[in-house]
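User: If only I could read backbone structure tokens as easily as an amino acid sequence. Underneath my words sits a plain record pairing an amino acid chain with its backbone structure tokens. This is the protein in question:
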Amino acid sequence: MGLSRTLPIFMFVLLLFSGATLAEPRIALQSPVVNLTSFQVGYYIDDSQTLGFDDVRQQSFKETSSTTTLGTNARVTWFRIPLDNQTDQELALNVHLPHAYHVRSVAFYQERDGQLVHSDILDLEDVDASGLMFRGSAVYPITLPAQSSTTLYVRSDAYSHQWFALEIFDQEHSRQALVGVANDIALLVGMMVALVFYNLLLYLATSKIENIYYSFYLISGLVWIALSYGLVASLFDAYGHELFMLNISLITMPIFLLLFMMAIFETRQHYPIEHRFLQAVLIPLCAMFVWGLFDISAALKPASSMALIMMTVTLSVSVSLLRKGHPLAKYFLVGHTLFVIFNALAVLFYKGLIEPSYLASHGTGLGIMLEALMLAFIISHRIKILEDIRASQEELKEQASTDPLTSLHNRRYFSTEAEFLLALCREQKRPMAVMIADIDHFKRVNDTWGHPVGDRVIVRIAQTLKSCCRSRDLLARFGGEEFVILLPDADLQQAALCAERIRATVATTAFQMGDGDTAHVSLSIGVALVDVEHDSIQSALDRADQALYTAKQDGRNRVAISEAAAAA
């Protein structure tokens, strides 16, 4: 008896619970002011993609938000929105689909009192036929009689991902929504365009292949951002399959990112294991690109899964390069981690696994922008590293060709440069002379005042020689207290006058020897003419050295000139 009484009560409660669960979400309009951007709707996925209105209205609809994402397996989805006008006046409303720019078609059906009262279709291949498209948004007008109920059905036929949003406005709020500008997306695209021009300047300066890959990465990214977030539709009023083909940039973007990694990290030359992993991801991406040229909708279906694989591999490679000490890996890892985080949100959003939000729906765009900025920094930092290396090499080269005490050229540099100057004078038939100068009794200076004072004397004489020579003369310290000067465009008489000027300047200079002591130091100089037609630098130096020996023998502090001609 107890069981028989309990069972009807249980069934009644179960029916009440089931009825509550299956109840259609209804929208009660109690005021002429309508500004609905978030509410519950029903949806039904038409797997056959062929059902008509009469068939669909008999199906069971599930509940979801008016802004939702249902992934790639919901290409054709019907949405049902019951509207109850509880006011005493007729309501003229506009139904907005702000993401309509990325679907193939949208159909609208109005049902009232069980009867179809109006229908319309928006084909994105022929938007002018319906007049329902405005700056990327589908705008469907609907009139609700006073104290009546109307059910609106919307059929969304997407190319790939079912990314749906529906809003309901009165006339004033509709105008406000339509004149709004996606400033955030325009800002992202503008920054990407600026980075493209910046990178172009870097390429002109460096001619590095990574700049090419980075440019195409940027172009792919800005095309996808402008296309996916409606900027192209809003600015150019362009829609349809041909425009949807530009979504292939979602495939080219990771391709150029992988190529950029291979180039910037030089993985082929230095990191073969990491290079093979990057290649393993690059090959299927290239295959998807070819596939997308023929069927972009089908090619994009596995794009989210492929993106997860790509992000996992590239993140692992950057961690491996960081552990191996690559100087740029830490910067790439920071930018790529941000890219992975934001794109992971986007992948979950596109697959319909998380609730819609700004970060989720805009995750790919934000991730691209953040990584693009970091890649620009990496390129600039690498240029700085290369410039530092080049400057270091130039410094080492300068040190290898310079006497460390006097900063004059050394014997090695003199030998190389003198041959070049001789060939130039020979070609232009210009004269050339050479002189060798030696400090008289320099050992006495070192023995009397010490080697530090001797070094100061050598430095002071080097400065005197530089001040007495022309900018085009080649001046070098050959070692110890001996100096050599090569004078292009100078005959024997001009060279002798220069030598005498040097000798006189040194002879009249008072050298500070320390403790307030001063002393005079003299030079002996030998001068020889270089026969540019038949001579060699060494033979001319030998004759100048013989003249120097003569000056020493004749009492020092004098200039001696070699009158000997070059051997034929």
User: Anything to note?
Assistant: Residues 13 and 19 are 10 Å apart (CA to CA).
